[in-house]
Amino acid sequence: MLTFKSVQNSAVASVIGLLSLLNAHSSQAAVINGDFEDGFRGYRTIGDTIVNTDSFESNLGEGATAVMSNTPGAEVDFTFSGNPAVATANLEMFLGLTIGSLRAIATNTVIEGSAIKQSFYGNANDILSFDFQFLTDEDVSSEFDNPRSGFNDFSFYTWQFSNSPSNVFQLADTFSNFNNSRTPFISETNAQNRSFSLAQTGYYTVGFGVVDVGDNSFSSALSVDNVKLASSEPVPVPTSLLALTIFSFGAFMKRRHWQKAK
Ligand SMILES: [Ca+2]
Ligand SMILES: [Ca+2]
Ligand SMILES: [Ca+2]
Question: How close is the Cα of 167 to the center of ligand 2, in Å?
């Protein structure tokens, strides 16, 4: 039997239902903890990775930044996290890359490295963007030895749609433009921004990493911050949901009026 109370409850339930649906949609279509202010919450990591707060001064981003490094090196038995960089094949498997993908964009054999990744739900045409900086102890200046392709450490990002093979793109290598660094590394690039557009709607995994090339010495690192997913257009509310809510409110008001008249 329809009572004032039951109509009222159904109207309230519809609104709550609509709000929770909208909320579920917006939290899915987002990157979690993109500014790393909550450590590595929302990410998976492999190798030597830390969330840097103030242990070394970086001009990248604000507050905490993610740092991946290919330490240790043969010359210094040191890692930032206590976990050493991993072999290239392990890195490729972690990132969903086919074996040999990193060698294919390198100037020599890829030895070892570290990475982080996060999976998220995105809509077609959403833009994923992030800030990054590449740091290295390799020779990068023409005043010294010049960068050498045999030891051309590099940083990269990956994206993977659903279970398809991952795609890898280089961010910076030892042939990039460098400044002296105040971090534990000798040289650093400027902070830069990179973005890419999602081709289709669904689950994606974005990854960031750095590798040693040629040998396992003279370390490099990739620092990342402000990972963001921006919608190219507002999420439309399904018309059937709106209609249901309006109908429920209508029924509620009508019933109320009828009860008053009685
Ligand atoms: Ca940050
Ligand atoms: Ca190394
Ligand atoms: Ca190196």
Answer: 24
